[in-house]
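User: Let's play a game. I give you a shape written as tokens, and you guess the letters that built it. Ready? Here's round one.
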């Protein structure tokens, strides 16, 4: 009997621990949900203030698989001619690229030249100022993989290549779909004790993403207009302040049952966090930088800038942010729709850059784009299809100025750098990018494997993208 009771106690204890670990991830956040709980982190940090060595990462995820072939376009005559022959009616004319031609500090090999899409002129100025870089042919990998190894299937490959859900998961978590934590959140786990309030370590301005979930760190969800309140608690309920007070007491008061107690404890913390964020944002002087209207990505980044401006009030020393924009799965209408999306990205990032300059933290914030995958270089007639490797942008004052990082692939189909139809075989892995960003944030070498589980498969763990540590 004692053995059975001990077993039951052990099971109950395990269930309680699992509930406590997952409770904050069960949020029903969303302004439209009447009982939305913007659940905060499980434990408060020991730190009591926010030192001056603040650093933040901002992930800009482009959902659907951005067409990198028309984002960063070959410009030198020979490469552009090959590109135009492959892309046909999708190709951007060479004369339209002159104003966005990038002139790196170190010339690209073999006289190659690259230009941003014509709609991204605002970012050309950021590149020229030395605060924008290009990461070439990065994508999901398990270990370094050659074309011969890929064809022979002699090395492990990411699961379900070219699938949206699966590759979003691998990009964000380094694990298959169904993963419960991402490398941004796992990085956040290591910084919880660096912040006076652990709740504000990982902040998602676009909803929910596995990238931001840690083993302990929980993404704090915020809208573009501010903290998501629990309706009926922060203002009169049914016109009655007494009803609101009664509801607050009901959902935050101590309970005897451990499940009720934990739910109310986390709810109470959510109410407190909402009040803290609202007060911090209200006390921040208005940004002079103008953000474009009618641009959801810009609105998200404006909120991130305001939160960064409130870092001292929030007690933040290390933070990870997530924003996103959808609509990039352009099998059709690429020539019509992709330019507008790129314009939104460029204008949003450009305004964010200017806001960080205004706040005096441009050297302390690194922003990077990411996406499900790249796309085929070849045209399907009206768009491009799912690919693999892709080119991405890095932005921040700590970067090596006016630089391209990684290996520039050939402009060809079924060439030395692709697995068919111009699908690039990545030459830089997401793990290497993540490990480099984590190291810049202050993660020690011994802890990198806890953030990026495949990093031990690479002899080169860090990419030379930063000019300063």
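Assistant: Ready! My guess for every position:
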């Amino acid at each position: 009997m004692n053995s059975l009771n001990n077993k039951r106690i052990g099971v109950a204890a395990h269930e309680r621990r699992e509930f406590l670990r997952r409770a904050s991830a069960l949020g029903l956040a969303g302004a439209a949900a009447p009982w939305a709980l913007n659940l905060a982190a499980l434990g408060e940090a020991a730190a009591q203030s926010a030192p001056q060595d603040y650093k933040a990462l901002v992930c800009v995820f482009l959902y659907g698989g951005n067409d990198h072939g028309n984002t960063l376009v070959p410009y030198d005559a020979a490469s552009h001619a090959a590109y135009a022959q492959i892309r046909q009616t999708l190709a951007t004319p060479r004369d339209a690229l002159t104003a966005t031609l990038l002139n790196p500090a170190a010339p690209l090999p073999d006289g190659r030249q690259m230009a941003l899409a014509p709609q991204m002129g605002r970012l050309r100025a950021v590149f020229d100022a030395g605060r924008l870089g290009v990461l070439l042919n990065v994508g999901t990998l398990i270990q370094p993989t050659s074309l011969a190894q890929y064809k022979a299937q002699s090395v492990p490959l990411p699961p379900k290549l070219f699938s949206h859900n699966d590759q979003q998961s691998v990009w964000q978590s380094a694990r298959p779909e169904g993963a419960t934590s991402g490398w941004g959140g796992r990085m956040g786990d290591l910084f919880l004790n660096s912040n006076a309030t652990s709740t504000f370590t990982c902040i998602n301005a676009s909803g929910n993403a596995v990238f931001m979930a840690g083993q302990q760190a929980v993404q704090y969800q915020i809208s573009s207009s501010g903290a998501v309140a629990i309706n009926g608690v922060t203002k009169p309920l049914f016109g009655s302040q007494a009803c609101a007070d009664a509801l607050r007491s009901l959902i935050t008061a101590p309970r005897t049952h451990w499940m009720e107690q934990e739910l109310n404890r986390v709810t109470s913390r959510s109410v407190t966090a909402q009040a803290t964020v609202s007060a911090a944002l209200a006390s921040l002087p208005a940004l002079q930088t103008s953000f474009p209207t009618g641009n959801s990505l810009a609105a998200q980044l404006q909120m991130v800038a305001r939160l960064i401006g409130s870092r001292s009030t929030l007690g933040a020393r290390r933070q990870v942010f997530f924003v996103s924009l959808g609509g990039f799965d352009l099998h059709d209408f690429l020539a019509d729709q992709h330019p507008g999306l790129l314009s939104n990205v460029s204008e949003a990032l450009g305004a964010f850059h200017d806001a960080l300059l205004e706040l005096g933290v441009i050297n302390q914030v690194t922003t990077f784009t990411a996406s499900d995958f790249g796309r085929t270089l070849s045209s399907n007639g009206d768009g491009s299809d799912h690919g693999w490797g892709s080119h991405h942008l890095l932005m921040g004052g700590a970067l090596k100025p006016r630089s391209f990082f990684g290996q520039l692939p050939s402009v060809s189909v079924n060439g030395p750098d692709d697995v068919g139809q111009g699908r690039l075989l990545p030459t830089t892995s997401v793990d290497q990018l993540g490990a480099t960003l984590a190291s810049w944030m202050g993660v020690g070498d011994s802890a990198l494997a806890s953030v990026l589980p495949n990093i031990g498969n690479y002899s080169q763990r860090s990419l030379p993208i930063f000019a300063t540590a």
